[in-house]
Amino acid sequence: MRQKTNYAVWxxxxxxxxxxxxxxxxxxxxxxxxxxxxxxxxxxxxYTLLTIFSCFAPVxxxxxxxxxxxxxxxxxxxxxxxxxxxxAAVIESLIIAFLVRFNPLKAIINIGQLLMTxxxxxxxxxxxxxxGTVSPIISDLFLAVVYWFVNLILCGLGISYxxxxxxxxxxxxxxxxxxxTYLLLLILAGVGSRLVESYGPLTLIPMMIAFITISYVxxxxxxxxxxxxxxxxxxKSFNHNFLTTMAASIDxxxxxxxxxxxRVAYWGREIARDIGLSERKVEDVYIGGILHDIGxxxxxxxxxxxxxxxxxxxxxxxxxHTVIGYEIILQAGMxxxxxxxxxxxxxxxxxxxxxxxxAGDEIxxxxxxxxxxxxxxxxxxxRPYRKGLPVEEALQEIRRGSGxxxxxxxxxxxxxxxxxxxxxxxxSIIGMESIxxxxxxxxxx
Amino acid sequence: xxLDVIALSFLVALLRGGRIKEFPKFNQIKLLIVTILLQAxxxxxxxxxxLFISIAYVFILAFLVFNREFEDxxxxxxxxxxxxxxxxxNNGKMPIDLVQAAKLPYDLEPVIxxxxxxxxxxxxxxxxxxxxxxxxMPSIIPRIISIGDIFIMLxxxxxxxxxxxxxxxxxxxxxxxxxxxxx
Lengths: 445, 183
Fold this sequence. Notes:
The structure holds two protein chains of two kinds.
Chain A: H1 2-35, H2 41-55, E1 59-61, E2 64-66, H3 69-79, H4 82-99, H5 104-131, H6 136-162, H7 167-199, H8 204-253, H9 260-274, H10 279-291, H11 301-304, H12 312-319, H13 321-332, H14 339-344, H15 365-380, H16 391-401, H17 408-420, H18 423-430, H19 437-443
Chain B: H1 3-15, H2 29-44, H3 49-66, H4 71-88, E1 94-96, H5 98-101, H6 109-112, E2 119-121, E3 135-137, E4 143-145, H7 147-163
Parallel strand pairs in B: 1-2
Antiparallel strand pairs in B: 3-4
Helix pairs in contact in B: 1-7, 2-3, 3-4, 4-7
């Protein structure tokens, strides 16, 4: 396998470093003879001006800046042919080479891919014109798509070689980023070229104004978008801090169950993943696990930390923690999706649980998952007044409760998850006082 | 020769609120002095003037390279580089297109009989004709310019903005960040 990968990289290297360079030199050379023709000099100087203009009037889209150079090149190909496209590309490359840090190999490879794109589009244009019957609208649209596609594929090849990624992944990533704007620019270039063809070069003025306006609108649009994204990030980070504090305060409140919430969250997440829930739902289950006992904040210390057996009244009070937690989260107005987990994680499949006596499928899935995680952790964790049960026995208990206390399918999944884990890893999870905060933050990111 | 462009640039810079406070410090000013001396030599020895001009271009390019941290200098560099290709490949003189030059109100006699120290006549045998003086620029001062001159004018404009403490940054134009195709 490794051998094969090396082989592929090697071939890619040859194609990019030698193929692209040879293509660049060949296309440059064949075009330069066209530049020597006296009648072409006016066009060359016009396209020099256009290229300079477009180099310094970039269009900004979310995370990247797209120059309108490709539009200029494309219009050159449509109006005059491959030599104008090549000229504009060469001028653009010169500007880039002189203005940014210069890497000769990368520069020539980049111009190689651009020239091959230009050559392909010009070749197809001549081929379509050979039919004589194709409407310019259709052919321009087709050529715009070809330009985008060939550019994407060749560029992707070069980038994937230099950044050591797979070709397909690079192309996919690039296509996702800027396809719509790219095609929009090329189509505008096509329209502009046809206008210039019919009404003369003065039509460039309204076209330029259109470009500048588009650039301006995009600029503002993405500025606002960026600001909004920043705000969302802030809110998210606030939520994370809030949750971390919550989890810490729950655990601090009940000194016998240090780390309990996080272990329940951990097991809940494992079950949720195992039954194939979406990443978002898995995350919800995790946070639900963190917060499931939040209502214990409202239970008196004497009861919560009492050694020995609880009286029936005290036990009733403990049971209140589900409802108290529910009320707290409801009032907070955040994490509404976690309400069922907090209220119903002590419900039983047979309907004998609390606080609402729900049965079977009436109990929300998240609560059914957390019920198993909660019970398991309560059984195996060491408490100051007793040692935790061995894992096998705890699993036996879960098996016994399957169908009465626990959802049988989830219980089966859970038993499998635990049995799959190597002994040492299992012990380290059970013995964990509290999972580092970093992991919590990662989980809810 | 760029007087109108420079004057216009100063006007724009003034309108943008620019004032000269301090002069930017350029490196290796002596290279510029050497260039001027070489050009003067070309005037006095027109027969081997081409050689002096060719060498003068090496020094100008070197001066620009030493000052490349200024972005406007890099624009100059492109222009001078394109002009240098035309001059180096045509015996040290910039060929000028007589068809275009005929529109100018100047006497073209020295160019035609080869005594002009800087220009020669563009012919079929000239190399890189598209980089020579072939574009007629009607205003403000009528002249024939080359493609390289377009960059030099732009560079002059940007440089004047910098002198007036209102530099126009081209920093946005950066590989990777600026070019989607290279991202």
